């Protein structure tokens, strides 16, 4: 499955699979960021990376250069990516406001401190 | 060996940058450095979008994501950092579990992506034959509800309006959230 | 240039050489521009304050003063504070400088069929805005990493200011985009072809007002006085670059002058006709590519001189403002943006939209019919390109007829895309 020869690596056009793999790497980095960071803003950055990976997939599925078997998303992919970007900006604004509130209440940005609801 | 296909070369360049800086975001523990690596990663992703022929999305990525979001993030960093260079360590056990899970997921996703033959890329002669089409006008018309590429399908006027209203609500809400608490704490201090 | 070269040498070498030529041209423009602007700033500030400015170094007007300063800066010790985050501290000036130069990638210096531009993007306006917005990033990193209160205050002010001013700036920029019907800077510039009367600043009353809003916002977004809160020396020592010395400090300055120049050029392309001078000299002399490459080259050269001249003029205006007006307070800066610039820009945007709906195809406050410029339609795609050469040789009488055919060509352009 991964046996394409290295010599052809640079001489053949890339496909959707390559973009999806890059998207997967970004997604996983983001997900791990969300899981391992104790800083609320670090978690936020993880979310940005995840959204960015998803965005890259949308663009790749909509691109005419990566596959031409007629199943490309076309314009829809790019429009979806645009909506994701806008919503990500909105999400960042709200998350920043939440982080500020969190800091005001806890004097820290460490998400592990938010354990008042623990039983 | 055939001559190098330059879009592929630039794909590997930008994807290498994007992935390397995404990993750097993951591994770094200083929040401002994380933000810096994140900007570079997002910028490289914008380059990938330009390569995929989505220049409007790429420019928007640069303008909104990199320009707007990250300045906001850094602003937040400054408002919330108590020590000068905030470092919060992650437990070593968490790292091991995270890498195991992430590595397995990455393997499955990459395996799945490359196991679909249509996704493996098109032939070079076909790629050369594709005529580049500007995407700005079709996107704008699509957002206004009139698709130019396929008039039989519906446009995106309603989602566009919903997103606009959503943005407005979010802006007001964020301003309210950030403001109300601060004024209360300042009253408490008095 | 690259396809031409690749007939003779390897393709990769051709593209590398073509890229290097662009890079060298742009770097030189910014570096030499900074050299000239710093000297100009000293002369202008001197004259405004009723003194002479530099007079000794290099001849009568002291025009080598900046070079001497540069050599002095080179020999200075490159210090980093002990408490600094060294990696970010080192890299911050380069971030600013790269962002400021990268904006020039998408800025055309002459238009027409073969524009003088490093990379012809059909989202040029947004690209330039986005990359200019990145310049603030280096400033923030510098302020944060240098472990100094003054730097941090300066950087925080800068962050707040630039984020706020991007909103009205974006709105101002959208108005010429709306009139030209394209995000492509080449198309925007070429749709103002002709004389002074066709410039977008005189297109209607709304664009005339929004030009001044743009000037205000552009001055603020490049941190020039009276909006230079990030480096207010009376309160913050030197703001974000307090801890910097030597060459790194000079990179910040080059970045500042580079982005001043690029917002001025952007203003000239968006509102002031770009490479089309106030009097259409190139049209009188028939300096167009159809009459042979040499004449076309001459025409382009005059266009480039126009763009750069207007850019330098804009920078001089900024200097004039700097040495005339006192600095605002930070709350006044924010109030200017949020209470005045944004509402005015929004209202003017709405007005320009309605004007464009009511009187399409007019120029100079709707008083004259605009000469048809086919470039004004579509987004610089292949369809508009194909239409243009066929019509460009028509004489003036026939062009009136084309003006009435505009809706048809709009349809054509959209179908072609």
Automatic annotation (TrEMBL), chain A:
NDH-1 shuttles electrons from NADH, via FMN and iron-sulfur (Fe-S) centers, to quinones in the respiratory chain. The immediate electron acceptor for the enzyme in this species is believed to be ubiquinone. Couples the redox reaction to proton translocation (for every two electrons transferred, four hydrogen ions are translocated across the cytoplasmic membrane), and thus conserves the redox energy in a proton gradient. One of its GO terms (cellular component) is NADH dehydrogenase complex. It catalyses: a quinone + NADH + 5 H(+)(in) = a quinol + NAD(+) + 4 H(+)(out). It is an enzyme of class 7 (translocase). The chain crosses the membrane at residues 16-34, 41-61, 81-103. It is a multi-pass membrane protein. One of its GO terms (biological process) is ATP synthesis coupled electron transport. Its EC number is 7.1.1.-. The keyword Metal-binding does not apply. NDH-1 is composed of 14 different subunits. Subunits NuoA, H, J, K, L, M, N constitute the membrane sector of the complex. Gene3D superfamilies: 1.10.287.3510. It is found in: Cell membrane; Membrane. NCBIfam families: PRK05715.1-2 (NF004320). Its main location: membrane. GO terms for molecular function: NADH dehydrogenase (quinone) (non-electrogenic) activity; quinone binding. Keywords: Cell membrane, Membrane, NAD, Oxidoreductase, Quinone, Translocase, Transmembrane, Transmembrane helix, Transport, Ubiquinone. This is NADH-quinone oxidoreductase subunit K. InterPro entries: NADH_UbQ_OxRdtase_chain4L/K (IPR001133), NUOK/Mnh_C1-like (IPR039428).
Automatic annotation (TrEMBL), chain B:
It is an enzyme of class 7 (translocase). Belongs to the complex I subunit 6 family. It is a multi-pass membrane protein. Its EC number is 7.1.1.-. The chain crosses the membrane at residues 6-27, 34-53, 59-79, 91-114, 156-178. Keywords: Cell membrane, Membrane, NAD, Oxidoreductase, Quinone, Transmembrane, Transmembrane helix. GO terms for cellular component: plasma membrane. InterPro entries: NADH_UbQ/plastoQ_OxRdtase_su6 (IPR001457), Nuo/plastoQ_OxRdtase_6_NuoJ (IPR042106). NDH-1 shuttles electrons from NADH, via FMN and iron-sulfur (Fe-S) centers, to quinones in the respiratory chain. Couples the redox reaction to proton translocation (for every two electrons transferred, four hydrogen ions are translocated across the cytoplasmic membrane), and thus conserves the redox energy in a proton gradient. GO terms for molecular function: NADH dehydrogenase (ubiquinone) activity; oxidoreductase activity; quinone binding. It holds the Pfam family Oxidored_q3. Signal peptide: none annotated. It catalyses: a quinone + NADH + 5 H(+)(in) = a quinol + NAD(+) + 4 H(+)(out). This is NADH-quinone oxidoreductase subunit J. It is found in: Cell membrane. It comes from Bythopirellula polymerisocia.
Automatic annotation (TrEMBL), chain C:
The chain crosses the membrane at residues 12-40, 91-111, 123-144, 165-188, 200-222, 257-277, 297-321, 333-355. PROSITE patterns: COMPLEX1_ND1_2. It is a multi-pass membrane protein. The keyword Translocase applies. It is found in: Cell membrane; Membrane. Keywords: Cell membrane, Membrane, NAD, Oxidoreductase, Quinone, Translocase, Transmembrane, Transmembrane helix, Ubiquinone. The keyword Membrane applies. One of its GO terms (cellular component) is plasma membrane. Its main location: membrane. It catalyses: a quinone + NADH + 5 H(+)(in) = a quinol + NAD(+) + 4 H(+)(out). One of its GO terms (biological process) is aerobic respiration. InterPro entries: NADH_UbQ_OxRdtase_su1/FPO, NADH_UbQ_OxRdtase_su1_CS. It holds the Pfam family NADHdh. Belongs to the complex I subunit 1 family. NDH-1 is composed of 14 different subunits. Subunits NuoA, H, J, K, L, M, N constitute the membrane sector of the complex. PANTHER family: NADH DEHYDROGENASE SUBUNIT 1, NADH-UBIQUINONE OXIDOREDUCTASE CHAIN 1. NDH-1 shuttles electrons from NADH, via FMN and iron-sulfur (Fe-S) centers, to quinones in the respiratory chain. The immediate electron acceptor for the enzyme in this species is believed to be ubiquinone. Couples the redox reaction to proton translocation (for every two electrons transferred, four hydrogen ions are translocated across the cytoplasmic membrane), and thus conserves the redox energy in a proton gradient. This subunit may bind ubiquinone. This is NADH-quinone oxidoreductase subunit H. It comes from Bythopirellula polymerisocia.
């Amino acid at each position: 499955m991964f046996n394409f020869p290295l010599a052809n690596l640079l001489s053949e056009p890339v496909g959707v699979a390559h973009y999806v793999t890059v998207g997967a790497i970004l997604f996983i980095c983001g997900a791990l960021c969300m899981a391992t960071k104790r800083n609320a803003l670090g978690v936020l950055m993880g979310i940005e990376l995840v959204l960015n990976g998803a965005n890259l997939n949308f663009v790749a599925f909509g691109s005419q250069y990566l596959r031409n078997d007629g199943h490309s998303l076309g314009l829809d992919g790019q429009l979806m990516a645009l909506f994701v970007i806008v919503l990500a900006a909105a999400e960042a604004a709200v998350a920043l406001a939440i982080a500020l509130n969190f800091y005001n209440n806890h004097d820290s940005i460490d998400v592990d401190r938010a354990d008042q609801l623990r039983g | 060996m055939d001559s190098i296909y330059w879009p592929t070369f630039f794909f590997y360049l930008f994807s290498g940058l994007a992935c390397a800086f995404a990993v750097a975001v993951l591994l770094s523990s200083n929040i401002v450095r994380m933000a810096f690596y994140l900007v570079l990663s997002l910028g490289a992703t914008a380059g990938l979008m330009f390569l995929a022929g989505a220049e409007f999305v790429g420019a928007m990525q640069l303008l909104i994501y990199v320009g707007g979001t990250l300045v906001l993030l850094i602003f937040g960093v400054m408002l919330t950092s108590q020590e000068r260079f905030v470092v919060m360590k992650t437990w070593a056990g968490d790292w091991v579990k995270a890498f195991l899970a992430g590595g397995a997921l990455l393997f499955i996703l990459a395996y799945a992506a490359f196991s679909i033959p249509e996704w493996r890329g098109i032939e070079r002669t076909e790629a050369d034959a594709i005529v580049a089409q500007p995407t700005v006008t079709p996107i704008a018309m699509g957002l206004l509800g009139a698709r130019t590429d396929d008039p039989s399908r519906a446009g995106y006027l309603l989602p566009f309006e919903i997103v606009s209203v959503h943005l407005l609500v979010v802006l007001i809400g964020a301003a309210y959230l950030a403001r109300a608490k601060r004024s209360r704490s300042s009253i408490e201090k008095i | 240039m690259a396809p031409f070269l690749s007939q003779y040498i390897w393709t990769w070498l051709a593209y590398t050489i073509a890229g290097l030529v662009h890079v060298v041209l742009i770097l030189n423009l910014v570096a030499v521009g900074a050299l000239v602007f710093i000297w100009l700033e000293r002369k202008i500030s001197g004259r405004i304050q009723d003194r002479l400015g530099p007079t000794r170094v290099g001849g009568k007007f002291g025009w080598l003063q900046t070079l001497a300063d540069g050599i002095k800066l080179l020999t200075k010790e490159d210090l980093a504070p002990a408490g600094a985050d060294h990696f970010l501290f080192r890299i911050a000036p380069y971030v600013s400088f790269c962002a400021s130069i990268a904006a020039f990638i998408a800025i055309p210096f002459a238009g027409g069929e073969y524009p003088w531009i490093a990379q012809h993007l059909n989202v040029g306006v947004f690209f330039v805005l986005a990359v200019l917005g990145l310049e603030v990033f280096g400033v923030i990193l510098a302020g944060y990493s240098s472990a100094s209160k003054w730097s941090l205050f300066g950087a925080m002010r800068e962050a707040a200011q630039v984020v706020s001013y991007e909103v009205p700036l974006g709105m101002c920029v959208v108005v010429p985009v709306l009139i030209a019907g394209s995000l492509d800077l080449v198309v925007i510039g070429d749709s103002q072809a002709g004389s002074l009367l066709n410039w977008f600043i005189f297109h209607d009353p709304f664009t005339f007002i929004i030009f001044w809003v743009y000037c205000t916002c552009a001055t603020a977004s490049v941190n020039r006085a009276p909006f230079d809160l990030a480096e207010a020396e009376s309160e913050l020592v030197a703001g974000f670059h307090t801890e910097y010395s030597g060459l790194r400090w000079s990179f910040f300055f080059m970045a500042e002058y580079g982005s001043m120049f690029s917002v001025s050029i952007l203003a000239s392309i968006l509102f002031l006709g770009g490479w089309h001078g106030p009097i259409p000299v190139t049209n009188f002399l028939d300096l167009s590519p159809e009459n042979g490459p040499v004449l076309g080259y001459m025409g382009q050269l005059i266009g480039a001189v126009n763009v750069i001249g207007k850019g330098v003029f804009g920078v001089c205006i900024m200097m004039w403002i700097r040495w005339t007006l006192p600095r605002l307070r930070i709350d006044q800066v924010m109030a200017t943006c949020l209470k005045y610039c944004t509402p005015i820009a929004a209202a003017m945007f709405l007005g320009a939209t309605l004007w464009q709906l009511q009187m399409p195809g007019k120029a100079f406050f709707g008083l004259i019919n605009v000469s048809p410029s086919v470039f004004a339609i579509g987004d610089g795609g292949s369809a508009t390109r194909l239409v243009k050469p066929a019509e460009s040789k028509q004489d003036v009488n026939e062009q009136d007829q084309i003006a009435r055919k505009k809706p048809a060509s709009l349809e054509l352009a959209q179908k072609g895309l």
